[in-house]
Specification:
The chain is mainly alpha-helical. Helix content is 44%, strand content 5%. About 9% of the residues have low confidence. It is built from 9 helices and 2 strands; from the N terminus they run H-H-H-H-H-E-E-H-H-H-H.
Length: 188
């Protein structure tokens, strides 16, 4: 039973579990999709997604509470708001694109995807980057070794081994903080 409790703690600390808590339901992803398409108002979200008002209100509040969107009062309508992406919400866009690409590749109708993205500067379709190994070859699941990270809880250190040192630290240099480090977190 103690191992089950430790695994729950490990899941609570897991970045993927935390991300899923913030955006991991169908409605939240669809709200983000519409926000990336430029939608900001409650009635527009409702119209484009076809979501019940009570569910929409709950999901928007959840995204605001998570710091992914912010509520901005509309000057022309007292008591009404726009929902605007924060830096944290805008930073999720590449993740949304990866999910969209997977859906376009595996689930789109034979005619192709409903929506494509073009570069504003030249009108060409956006190319999705391919993930590569350190040797520059296309990344496959078989190429991955899972090791405990520097923030691993004891359960995951035991499961995946001691926390991995960064390659830069191994060479005697100070490693730069990763992009997702706590220095980017916004206080609530």
């Amino acid at each position: 039973m103690a191992d089950v409790k430790r695994s729950r703690i490990a899941n609570k600390e897991c970045s993927v579990a935390r991300a899923m808590e913030a955006v991991g339901d169908r409605w939240s992803i669809l709200l983000l999709r519409e926000a990336y398409y430029g939608v900001k108002r409650f009635d527009e979200f409702q119209y484009y997604i076809g979501i019940a008002p009570n569910i929409l209100s709950t999901r928007l509040k959840k995204l605001v509470d998570a710091g992914i969107m912010t509520r901005v009062p509309l000057s022309e309508h007292a008591g009404r708001y726009e929902y605007v992406l924060t830096e944290k919400g805008r930073d999720f866009f590449p993740t949304y694109l990866a999910l969209k690409k997977w859906g376009d590749d595996w689930l789109a109708e034979p005619a192709g995807p409903q929506v494509v993205f073009h570069d504003r500067s030249n009108g060409q379709e956006v190319q999705y980057p391919q993930l590569l190994t350190a040797r520059g070859k296309p990344l496959r699941l078989e190429d991955i070794e899972i090791v405990a990270g520097s923030g691993a809880v004891p359960f995951n250190r035991k499961r995946f081994g001691a926390a991995a040192a960064s390659p830069a630290a191994d060479r005697g240099r100070t490693a730069a903080k990763p992009r997702g480090s706590s220095s980017r977190r916004k206080s609530k």
